[in-house]
Write a structure and sequence with these properties.
- By secondary structure, the chain is an alpha/beta fold.
- It has a single domain, classed as Rossmann fold (3-Layer(aba) Sandwich), CATH 3.40.50.
- 54% of the residues lie in helices and 12% in strands.
- The protein has nine helices and five strands, in the order αβαβααβααβααβα.
- A five-stranded parallel β-sheet has the order 2-3-1-4-5, sandwiched between helices.
- Helix 5 packs across helix 8.
- Bound molecules: thymidine-5'-diphosphate.
- The site of thymidine-5'-diphosphate has 12 residues, from helix 5.
């Protein structure tokens, strides 16, 4: 005989921790080298934290111990274009599995300096990687996942190159590329933005940082807090 009046299990902290969390949001920053995204990333992270959001800030290539080792190779070791594209996605696979997906699933937001739009812009646009190969890697590594918001910092490559030069830091393999490479990268970002206008906002980066911050804060508030 079975009893139909089994006592209800008490709600435990462990059960609450297992309860489904609202998924976190995924925000990415993109643009050619020297477009000025770094300080704006810090401002967005500060804005979100001030709004009570738990945020993880990270970057690509990188974001994990393995990803940072791949970053060293990617930024400094000469390699075949397809090796470069696959290593970008290998680092991304690790990053998604170890950090991005667990954070989003637990309700934390993730703000990431570059993601797959950078592979589209640099490897497809800049270097001429076959687009079908990019599509295949993207479908393999993150099927069904795209950022909730991507901010593309758009700037004339001549202006961006002058900014990079003024830092006095030794340029990496990408920063050493010629102007026409960055013209193609910029075009590819703009094309990607035309393909996903809901997700990707193009920011005019040829303005004072304070004016750019105001725009970004408005976009973030409208998108997530209105
Ligand atoms: P970034 O961290 O923005 O450079 P920095 O630390 O110098 O500001 O990005 C590193 C470089 O990697 C940048 O030149 C763009 C390049 N990159 C690609 O070519 N493809 C990619 O998929 C990613 C994520 C980055």
């Amino acid at each position: 005989m079975t009893s139909s009046s089994a006592p209800e299990a008490p709600v435990t902290a462990a059960a609450l921790a297992r309860a489904p969390q609202p998924r976190g949001r995924f925000i990415t920053f993109e643009g050619i080298d020297g477009a000025g995204k770094s300080s704006q990333i810090a401002a967005v992270v500060a804005l979100l934290r001030a709004s009570g959001v738990a945020v993880d800030q990270t970057r690509e290539p990188g974001g994990t111990a393995l990803g940072e080792r791949l970053r060293e190779l990617l930024l400094h070791a000469p390699m075949h274009l397809e090796t470069e594209a696959m290593l970008m996605f290998a680092a991304r696979r690790e990053h998604l599995a170890a950090r991005i997906e667990p954070a989003l699933a637990s309700g934390r937001w993730v703000v990431c300096d570059r993601f797959s739009d950078a592979t589209f812009a640099y490897q497809v646009g800049g270097r001429g990687l076959d687009r079908a190969k990019f599509d295949a890697l993207e479908r393999w590594v993150h099927p069904g996942l795209q950022p909730d918001l991507t901010l593309v910092f758009d700037l004339d490559p001549a202006v961006a190159a002058a900014r990079v030069a003024s830092t006095g830091v030794d340029p990496d393999r990408f920063e050493r590329e010629q102007r026409d490479f960055f013209v193609r990268v910029r075009e590819a970002y703009l094309e990607r933005a035309r393909l996903a206008p809901q997700r990707i906002c193009v920011i005019d980066a040829d303005r004072a940082p304070e004016r750019i911050s105001v725009d970004i804060e408005r976009i973030v508030r409208e998108r997530f807090f209105s």
